[in-house]
Specification:
heterotrimer, A mainly alpha (505), B mainly alpha (303), C alpha/beta (259), B: 303 residues, mainly alpha, disordered C terminus, C: 259 residues, alpha/beta, Rossmann fold, 6-stranded mixed beta sheet
Chain lengths: 505, 303, 259
C-alpha cells in the first residue's frame, strides 16, 4: 500500500502458514505425499526468494511478483508429479471453474448484480464451441474464441433488460434464464446442431496437442490451455479492478444515485459488467466441454452449476480475485472430491474423518465463543492467578476430544444402515453457505486479508491472551492497534457487531 | 373453440397451484423483504413428512399435522437463520435462500431416496362436467382450495389485528416496534404461515406429479413467475399471476403449432417443449417492461 | 458573468406541487445559498439541477449550454459536482478510491483498453491519483486515505465527499445541507473550509442550508424559497430584513408540507 516505507515488514505468520498449506495441498493433490513435500519445498524456496527480494531495493515493491512466480512454478510442475490423468484433469477443472467464478465475481461481487443465470452463459459458450468444432472442424482455440464471443453478446443482450431490475428481481430473471437454457437446447428443431436431449459427443475429434512430444499428453495439453487462460483471466481482471472501471463497478454496487452524480454512466457500467462476466463464463463453458471428454449435454449446464459457482464465490470471498481461486479450489477439492472420499472411507468403517470433524466443530464452537472465553477468564483467575486459565483451556481441549468421540458415535448410530453421506452433501454445503454468509461475509479471502496484517508478535500475544490470564495492568493489544485492526475489518464487520449489540438479548 | 375453453380451464387449475406457492412467496417477501428460494424444497420436505405420517394415520390427520410441522419449521428457520441476515444486504438473503434450497433438497433425497413415491389423492371420483367442459375432480378441488386460501389470507391481513400488525411490521419495522408491535414474533409468524401454505401446495401437487425430491422445482419457479407478475405485494395478485402463468403454458402447448404453421416457418414436432420456455420468457418480458409486476405499486426512490 | 441560470422550473409529485416556477441566477465565483423552511422545494431543485429529477417545465442553462439535455451522469462533465444531504459515500471503498471515483469522467475508462492496460489508461490514472492526493492533503485526509469510507466519523465523511466532488474540477459545486449533523464548532470550520475552497480552487458554490448563521456569514447571495416558490433574493442583509421571509420563517404558514 504505502510506497514510502523503507523496507517491507517480514512475512506475517498468516502468509507463511497459508502458503505452506497451499503448497502442501497443491502438492498432495497432484502427487500424493511426494508431491506434498515438493510443494512445501517450493513454498520455502519462494520465501527465500522474497526474503532476498526485500533486501534489494528495486525488488522491494515486487514481492507480489515473486509470490506469483512461485505459485506459477508450482502450477507448471504439478502435472508432471501428478498421479495419473485424473489428477491433471481435476486441476484443469479447478482452473476453468476459477475463470467462471471470477467472471461471476466481477458481476455479482464487484458490481452487486446477482446472477443465478451463469450456467446459461457457460452453456452458450460450451455449446457454441462444440458446434463450431463439429460443423467446421475448427481448431479448438478458434472455436473457444467464438464461444466466448457468443456468450459476451448474450451477456449484452441480457444486460439491457436487466438494467431495470435490481436485487432479488434480477435474481429471479436470471434464474429464469438458467432454467430455459436446457429446454431450448433440447428443442427438436435445433437437434441437428445441439444433439437434442442426448447432447453432442465429439469424442472422435482429436483436440490434442499440435506437436508430437511424448511428455505432452492430451491431459497435460488441456491443463496448460486451462492454466494459460486462467492466467490471462486473472491479469485482465486485475487490470480491470484496479482501474476506474473497477471503481465504477463497486460504486454502482454501493450506491447508484451517488455513482451517477459522480459522473458514472450506471447503465453502461452494468452492461459492461454483464458482458465481461459472461465472456468469462463462456470461456469456462468451452473449457468444460473440452475437459468433459469433448461432450456437451443439457445436463452439464443446469441451474445447480450456477448455484455451485455462487457458493464458491461467497465462500472464497466476494469482490476479490484470490477469493475466486480459493472458491474454485473449495468447489473441486473439498465439495466434490473430499466429500466423496470421506463418505467412501466412512462406509469402509474408518472413523477418523468423523472424529476429526467432530473435534474441529467442538473446538470452533468452544474456543470461538465469546461466552466461553469470558467464562474461562473469570473462573481461571480464581483457580490460579497465572495458570488457571491455561488449565481450564487444557480441560476444554480434552472436552473437544471427548466431543469428537461422541460426535462419531452419534453420527454412526444415526446413519446406521440407511443414510448415505453423499446425498447429504447438499445439506452440508447449504449449511456451510449460510454460515459463511452470516459469520464470514467477506469469505476466506477476507479472513486471510485480515490475518495478513497480524505479525508474529501480535499473533503470539493474541494466543497468550486467549489461553492464559492476561498480566495485570496491560492488555496485550494496545488501543491503537485495536483501532487499526477494526478499520481493517471493514464496515461490514462494524455493522454486524453493531447489530449484535443493538439486539443484545 | 371447445379445446380453447378446456385448455383455459385446465390452465386456471394448474395455475392455482402456482398461485398458492406465489402466495407463500409474497408473504415472506412482505415480512422480510427476501425471496425464499428454499420455499419449494421445504414444501417438498414437509410433503414427504406428510407421506410418512399418512402411512400410520388417516389423510386428514396427516395433512393437519404436516401443516403444523411446516409452520414450526418456518418459525424456527426465521428465528435461527433469517434473523441473522436481516440487517445485511439483499444479496445475503438470496444466498441464504439458495442455501436452504440445496440443504432441504438434499435432506429429502437422503432420507427418502430419489425414487418416486405415491402420494394419496384426497379428492376421488370421476371428472366433473360443467356445461360441456370436463375438469378433473382433483384440479377442481385444487382450484377451490387456492381460492379459499387466498380469500382467507386476504381477510386475515385485512380484518384481523394480527394481520394488521404483520402488515405494519412489513411496511415499517421500526415504526411498528415503537407502536408496541412485537415485530420479532410477527416475523416468525409470517415465516411460519408462509411455510405452512407452501406445505399445502406441496401436498396438493404431489398426487398430480409423483412425489420426488425435485418435485417442486418447476412449481416453485412458476410460483416465482406468478408472484412477480402479481407484483409481490398483493395476495390476490399472486393468485391471479399464477392463473396467468398456468393458462399461458397451456395455450402455448396447444397453439404454438398452429401459429408456426400459419407463419409458414416450418412445423413443430412437439409443442409441449415450448411451454416452459414461453412461460419463463413471459417473466423476463414482464420484468423488463414492468419491474414492479402487473399489480405492484411503483416505488419512488427518495434521495 | 452568469454561470447558472434557472428559469421557471415546475415539478409536481402526484398532487404535491414541489416547485412552482422557480428561477434564479448564480454568478461565476459566487457563494449562493438556497434557503427556506422544510418542504420549500430546495432539495427538489437540487435534484433537478443534478438531473435526478426531470422538471415538468422550465429551463436550466449552465455556462451557456442546456443542462436539461444531459443525462444524469453527464452533468459532471458539464462542470457541476454535488454532495448529498446525508452524505452518500461508497462505504466499502477506501477514501482514496472514493475521491478517485469523483474524477471518473476525467479518467480513461474504456473497458477493453483498461483490461489491456493501455498506456493512455495508465497515464490518466496516474494523473488522477496525483490530483486525488493533492485534494486528500488539502482536506487533511492523509491519515485515513486507505481506510474504508463507511467506517469514518461523520464530519470526516463530509470532507471526503467534498474532496470527491472537487475531484472532477467542477466550475459549480452543489452542497446539499453541508452543516447537517455537525456541532457548532464543526459548522464554523466548515464555513471557513467552503470559503477557502472557493478562493483556492476557484469554484462557484450553490448550497442548500438550514443553518442560518452559516448561510449569513459565507454567502454572497441568498435565495429564499417557500412552498415551491422563490419569495426573496439578495445579499444576506437584504434577505434578513425582508418581511415575507420573516413571515415564512416565523409563522403565519398553514402547517408544514411534506418534503
Amino acid at each position: 500500500m504505502s510506497a514510502t516505507r523503507a523496507a517491507l515488514p517480514a512475512p506475517t505468520p498468516a502468509e507463511v502458514g497459508a502458503l505452506a498449506f497451499a503448497g502442501y495441498l497443491l502438492g498432495f493433490i497432484a502427487g500424493g505425499n511426494q508431491g506434498a513435500l515438493i510443494g512445501v519445498a517450493a513454498v520455502a524456496a519462494g520465501m527465500l526468494v522474497t526474503r532476498f527480494a526485500r533486501r534489494v531495493s528495486w525488488a522491494q515493491e515486487r514481492t507480489g511478483v515473486a509470490w506469483a512466480a512461485v505459485i506459477l512454478a508450482l502450477a507448471v510442475i504439478a502435472p508432471f508429479v501428478a498421479e495419473g490423468d485424473f489428477r491433471i484433469t481435476q486441476m484443469a477443472t479447478a482452473a476453468y471453474i476459477a475463470i467462471g467464478v471470477l467472471g461471476l465475481n466481477l458481476l455479482t461481487g464487484y458490481t452487486g448484480q446477482v446472477s443465478i443465470g451463469h450456467s446459461a452463459f457457460l452453456g452458450l459458450g460450451g455449446y457454441t464451441t462444440a458446434i463450431v468444432v463439429n460443423e467446421w472442424d475448427a481448431h479448438f482455440l478458434v472455436a473457444l474464441a467464438i464461444g466466448t464471443l457468443a456468450a459476451t453478446l448474450a451477456g449484452v443482450i441480457i444486460g439491457v433488460p436487466a438494467l431495470r431490475l435490481s436485487g432479488p428481481y434480477l435474481a429471479i430473471a436470471t434464474l429464469g434464464l438458467a432454467v430455459v437454457f436446457g429446454p431450448i437446447v433440447k428443442l427438436h428443431e435445433l437437434e441437428d446442431f445441439t444433439g437434442g436431449r442426448a447432447g453432442l459427443n465429439l469424442f472422435a475429434h482429436d483436440l490434442g496437442p499440435p506437436v508430437d512430444w511424448a511428455w505432452l499428453t492430451d491431459a497435460r495439453w488441456y491443463y496448460f490451455i486451462a492454466l494459460a487462460l486462467l492466467i490471462v483471466a486473472i491479469v485482465l481482471a486485475r487490470h480491470l479492478t484496479e482501474s476506474a472501471v473497477g471503481r465504477s463497478f463497486r460504486a454502482v454496487r454501493d450506491g447508484e444515485v451517488a455513482a451517477a452524480a459522480a459522473g458514472i454512466n450506471v447503465a453502461a457500467t452494468k452492461i459492461t459488467a454483464f458482458a465481461i462476466s459472461s465472456a468469462y463464463a463462456g470461456c469456462a463453458g468451452g473449457l468444460l466441454f473440452l475437459l468433459s471428454n469433448r461432450f456437451v449435454s443439457p445436463e452439464s449446464y443446469t441451474v445447480l452449476i450456477s448455484i455451485e459457482y455462487l457458493i464458491a464465490m461467497i465462500i472464497g470471498g466476494m469482490a476479490t480475485i484470490e477469493g475466486s481461486l480459493i472458491g474454485s479450489f473449495f468447489l473441486v477439492y473439498l465439495y466434490r472430491e473430499s466429500f466423496d472420499d470421506l463418505s467412501r472411507r466412512m462406509q469402509q468403517g474408518d472413523d477418523m474423518p468423523l472424529f476429526l470433524a467432530g473435534v474441529v466443530i467442538a473446538a470452533v464452537a468452544l474456543f470461538g465463543s465469546t461466552l466461553v472465553t469470558a467464562w474461562v477468564r473469570r473462573y481461571g483467575a480464581r483457580v490460579h492467578p497465572r495458570y488457571g486459565a491455561l488449565a481450564l483451556n487444557a480441560a476444554l481441549m480434552l472436552c473437544c476430544l471427548g466431543l469428537g468421540v461422541a460426535f462419531t458415535a452419534v453420527v454412526r448410530k444415526a446413519t446406521e444402515g440407511f443414510l448415505d453421506l453423499v446425498t447429504l452433501r447438499g445439506a452440508l454445503t447449504g449449511m456451510f453457505l449460510i454460515i459463511t454468509v452470516v459469520a464470514l461475509p467477506e469469505g476466506v479471502a477476507g479472513m486471510l486479508r485480515r490475518l495478513r496484517s497480524l505479525t508474529w508478535g501480535e499473533m503470539g500475544s493474541a494466543v497468550r491472551d486467549r489461553l492464559t490470564t492476561p498480566a495485570t495492568g496491560g492488555d496485550p493489544v494496545t488501543p491503537v492497534d485495536e483501532e487499526m485492526t477494526r478499520a481493517d475489518f471493514g464496515p461490514v464487520e462494524h455493522m454486524a457487531s453493531a447489530g449484535r449489540h443493538g439486539k443484545g438479548g | 373453440m371447445d379445446t380453447f375453453i378446456e385448455q383455459v380451464v385446465s390452465g386456471v387449475m394448474t395455475g392455482s397451484v402456482y398461485g398458492i406457492v406465489a402466495l407463500a412467496l409474497v408473504m415472506i417477501f412482505q415480512s422480510t423483504r427476501m425471496f425464499n428460494f428454499g420455499q419449494g424444497e421445504i414444501a417438498t420436505f414437509t410433503t414427504f413428512i406428510a407421506w410418512s405420517l399418512m402411512l400410520h394415520m388417516p389423510y386428514a390427520l396427516g395433512f393437519v399435522l404436516a401443516v403444523v410441522i411446516a409452520f414450526g419449521i418456518g418459525a424456527v428457520l426465521e428465528r435461527g437463520v433469517i434473523r441473522l441476515v436481516e440487517d445485511k444486504p439483499a444479496m445475503s438473503g438470496v444466498m441464504v435462500g439458495l442455501g436452504l434450497f440445496i440443504a432441504f433438497n438434499s435432506i429429502s433425497a437422503s432420507i427418502y431416496g430419489p425414487e418416486p413415491h405415491h402420494f394419496e389423492q384426497p379428492f376421488t371420483g370421476g371428472p366433473i362436467d360443467i356445461g360441456g367442459v370436463t375438469i378433473g375432480r382433483h384440479s377442481a378441488y385444487l382450484f377451490g382450495v387456492a381460492m379459499l386460501l387466498s380469500a382467507l389470507f386476504y381477510a386475515f391481513f385485512r380484518y384481523t389485528s394480527v394481520g394488521l400488525a404483520l402488515r405494519a411490521t412489513a411496511a415499517d419495522r421500526t415504526g411498528a416496534e415503537l407502536m408496541g408491535v412485537p415485530t420479532g414474533y410477527m416475523l416468525m409468524l409470517g415465516w411460519g404461515l408462509a411455510t405452512a401454505v407452501g406445505a399445502v401446495a406441496g401436498m396438493l401437487v404431489a398426487p398430480m406429479i409423483v412425489l420426488t425430491p425435485n418435485m417442486m422445482f418447476f412449481v416453485l419457479l412458476f410460483g416465482f413467475a406468478a408472484a412477480v407478475l402479481g407484483g409481490l405485494d398483493s395476495a390476490p395478485g399472486a393468485v391471479v399471476g399464477g392463473v396467468i402463468v398456468g393458462v399461458t403454458q397451456n395455450l402455448v402447448g396447444v397453439y404454438v403449432d398452429d401459429l408456426v404453421s400459419a407463419l409458414h416457418v416450418g412445423s413443430i414436432r412437439d409443442p409441449n417443449q415450448y411451454r416452459d420456455i414461453v412461460a419463463m420468457g413471459l417473466i423476463i418480458v414482464v420484468l423488463a417492461l414492468r419491474p414492479r409486476g402487473l399489480f405492484g405499486r411503483a416505488i419512488v426512490e427518495r434521495v | 458573468m452568469t454561470l447558472l441560470s434557472v428559469t421557471d422550473i415546475w415539478k409536481q409529485f402526484g398532487g404535491i406541487r414541489a416547485l412552482q416556477g422557480v428561477g434564479f441566477e448564480v454568478e461565476e465565483g459566487q457563494i449562493c445559498a438556497l434557503i427556506g423552511p422544510n418542504g420549500a422545494g430546495k432539495t427538489t431543485m437540487f435534484n433537478c439541477l443534478s438531473r435526478i429529477y426531470d422538471p415538468d417545465r422550465g429551463a436550466i442553462r449552465f455556462a451557456g449550454s442546456d443542462l436539461l439535455a444531459r443525462a444524469p451522469h453527464a452533468v459532471v462533465s458539464a462542470g457541476i459536482a454535488r454532495t448529498f444531504q446525508n452524505v452518500s459515500l461508497f462505504s466499502t471503498m477506501t477514501v482514496m478510491e472514493n475521491v478517485l471515483v469523483g474524477g471518473h469522467s476525467t479518467i480513461q475508462h474504456n473497458a477493453v483498453l483498461t483490461m489491456l492496460r493501455w498506456p493512455s489508461v495508465t497515464r490518466s490514472e496516474r494523473a488522477a491519483r496525483e490530483r486525488a492526493a493533492t485534494l486528500i492533503d488539502y482536506f487533511d485526509l492523509r491519515d485515513v486515505a486507505d481506510r474504508p469510507a463507511g467506517a469514518l466519523p461523520f464530519p470526516t465523511r463530509k470532507r471526503v465527499e467534498l474532496a470527491r466532488g472537487l475531484m472532477s474540477s467542477p466550475r459549480l459545486l452543489l452542497l446539499d445541507e453541508p452543516a447537517g449533523g455537525l456541532n457548532h464548532e464543526e459548522v464554523r470550520e466548515l464555513g471557513e473550509l467552503i470559503r477557502s475552497v472557493r478562493t483556492d480552487l476557484g469554484v462557484t458554490i450553490l448550497l442548500v442550508e438550514h443553518h442560518m448563521q452559516l448561510v449569513m456569514t459565507i454567502s454572497d447571495k441568498v435565495c429564499v424559497m417557500d412552498f415551491g416558490r422563490k419569495i426573496a433574493e439578495g445579499c444576506p442583509d437584504e434577505v434578513k430584513s425582508n418581511a415575507e421571509v420573516i413571515r415564512a420563517y416565523l409563522g403565519d404558514t398553514p402547517g408544514e408540507q411534506p418534503a
